[in-house]
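Q: Convert this sequence to structure tokens.
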Amino acid sequence: MRPLASPAALDAATPGDRDRYLDLLRALALAVVVFGHWLTAVVWVDGDGLHASTLLERLPASRWATWVVQIMPVFFLVGGVVNARSWRSVLARGGDWPTWVRARATRLLRPVLPLLWVWAVLCAGLAAAGLDPALVRQGSLAALVALWFIAVYLLVIAATPAALAMHARAGRWSPAVPVALGVAAAGVDVAHLAGVGVVGFANFFLVWAAVHQLGICWGDGFLQGPRAQGSKAPWVLLGGGLGVLIVLVGWGGYPASMVGVDGLRSNTFPPSVALVALGFAQAGVVLAVADGARRRLASPRLWRGVIAVNLVAMTVYLWHS
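A:
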């Protein structure tokens, strides 16, 4: 196994045309998720022994903070930009879809395998020691829950050629495609709440595909750049996303928390259209601060910090639970 290059070496090797802002957003998204999980954990001891819960359960007002710390939509937004560029580059070189998907999957799954091996050995040891199987299952769920993201992201990667085909077919109306996917996610919500339980799992794709599709629009300049209509897109996304989110929570019966809370209806399992609205609002913020962030990332010190976080971000994300 080759040793990881140092941040300084990667800084020196960074192409001049690389969009460093995308790397910052990717690192920030995973870091905020990890620290958010750590900060919301609540552990206490009383006469009945050791207890564990979350701040979201103990303090309902804290659920509003998840509108900021549920930042996973930003990762999928960036993914739309990056995956579209990667697939187009492969096509230009005469590559094919299976090889491309396999390469992307290998890169994504490489840090997962050690986690699975360690947990398999640990579970076998705990079972042999006579630990309650229910506790082993509960621990496994807590340790491996982060893998949902890997599975969904792989699905979105595999669908990138189809996403780009829809994007191209829509032409100047391309920004309507992620909106249409969001509307489809809302339809799934309605069916799910009406009792068609299994249909809710379709939103594991539709919700995150909508945000990914928005990233494709961003990367092609429909939201910020030569094809954008003026400079209003960030504010339309922010205002529209927040407006829809407020309506969904205030009058639509959706939970205020963008992170699952035990015993309550969830916006994350299965994902709901509320996460699409949140993703659009967050995209507005991302676009609004993009120019200033890119200027600051020209600083070697700041860029090396971003590189250092990205070198360990996925590993920390997988192991932090």
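The longest helix spans residues 20-40.
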